[in-house]
Amino acid sequence: MSETAFSMTDGQVSYDGTPVLRGIDLNVCPGEVVALLGSNGSGKSTLVRALLGLTPLSGGTTLIYGSPPGRFRDWWRIGYVPQRLQVGGGVPATVQEVVASGRIARQRRLRWTNAADKAAVATALEAVSLADRAHDPVQSLSGGQQQRVLIARALAGEPDTYVMDEPTAGVDAATQQLLADTLSRLVVDGKTVVLVAHELGPLEPIVTRGVVIRDGIISHDGRPPRPEGECARPGHEHQHPHAAETVAGPLPGWQAELTGWQGEPR
Ligand SMILES: Nc1ncnc2c1ncn2[C@@H]1O[C@H](COP(=O)(O)OP(=O)(O)OP(=O)(O)O)[C@@H](O)[C@H]1O
After folding, report:
1. Which of 14, 15, 54, 258 should be mutated for ligand 1, with most atoms under 8 A from CB?
2. Ligand 1: which atom is nearest the Cα of residue 46?
3. What band does 173 get if pLDDT is binned at 50, 70 and 90?
4. Has residue 98 been placed in a domain?
5. Per the domain annotation, does 5 fall within a domain?
6. How many CB atoms lie within 10 A of CB 198?
């Protein structure tokens, strides 16, 4: 089986006949921490969903560890943190139950929850500082806390690859740092991360590769951008009004494109 986590070739997605992704070529290798960047509506979430087979391609191919999504069986290898999900989907569930659901892909049929499952759930709750809320209904948590529950659910599954769609959106600075620390430990262990972000913030030091999506195409794939000056300040909102005006190309192109991302790349 291929150890390339994701391999998309000429990936295309259309909604109601409107192209949203156009000719995406993207391989993600083990140990990479890939940040998908770009302005609102550029196609980042669509790309994440297409990589996972949640949104069908209208053209091209995509593979998860060497298999088309429809034939991929080792879902325990993938931990997905979706964007702005209603945690629990209206079903009454405790924080611990939602986090424990991250173990399901690891559990064979008719296997009882074992000590390893319990330990993984406890560790995941600790990692997002929610151990003291384990028995509370998820609906009683704030939006940012619910986001942390989703992150813990992915952590509990102990996957090889994490796919996180804006994991730090609506999450306070301390928790962003907590997530960055947790991910850096996972990366040391050889885990792979694909994340969507508008602000890398504390995640910036662990990102190894920046992939910039502009209007459904990859306009830069390489060294991650580094915020400097005004734009490095916490809470700075990045708008990318000039994204559509710039030309795809090497580093000078993406620096100009990501208005607000300035300075020398690493
Ligand atoms: N289910 C859908 N049906 C129709 N159009 C959609 C659907 N999902 C996304 N789109 C459109 O596809 C385009 C890309 O959306 P997508 O959510 O992938 O962008 P994004 O880069 O993740 O944006 P953001 O940064 O705002 O989250 C947008 O124009 C959006 O309106």
Report:
1. 15
2. 18
3. confident
4. yes
5. no
6. 17
pTM: 0.82
Q: Report residue 249's pLDDT band, with 50, 70 and 90 as the boundaries.
A: very low
The domain in which residue 179 lies consists of 28-44+85-257
Question: Does 198 map to a domain?
Answer: yes
Q: Centre a 10 Å sphere on the Cβ of residue 19 and count the other Cβ atoms it contains.
A: 16
Query: What Rg, from alpha-carbon coordinates, does the chain have?
Result: 18
Question: What's the mean pLDDT in 205-222?
Answer: 94
* Structural domains in the chain (count): 1
Helices 143-156 and 173-188, packing angle to 10 deg: 10
Q: Residue 177 is part of a domain; what is its CATH number?
A: 3.40.50.300
Q: Max alpha carbon distance in the chain (Å)?
A: 56
pLDDT of amino acid 144: 84
Asked whether residue 66 is assigned to any structural domain, the reply reads no
